[in-house]
Specification:
Oligomer: single chain
Largest sheet: 4 strands, antiparallel
Number of helices: 3
Low-confidence stretches: none
Strand content: 15-25%
Order of helices and strands: HEEHEEH
Shape: globular
Strand order of the largest sheet: 1-2-4-3
Structural class: alpha+beta
Number of strands: 4
Mean pLDDT: 92
Length: about 110
Amino acid sequence: MTEESASELIKKVPGWNLQNESGVLKLHKSWTVKTFIKGLEFFQMVANVAEAEGHHPDLHLVGWNNVKIDIWTHSVGGLTENDFILAAKIDALDLNPLLRRKAKPRMD
């Protein structure tokens, strides 16, 4: 897939970013979870979808509560339409109970 095609499809998966790592296009998204255990639960939910799709993203738990996912098709060395489909299916998961809430601005 060309970078131009990927730039069009990325609009269908808000919050995901295109990354070019040494000429390999990947989808990337990050979340902050409440706890380390919630991060592992997050991965299990994503793993269930990925296994059903037969398409396995790179999952990263950085620190104790930062979850990062990179999606790309290893066999073609870049992106395919299936990568965007998997990203959309991950976005459809109810991950909110696992995610850390942003602090509300104080009104002092």
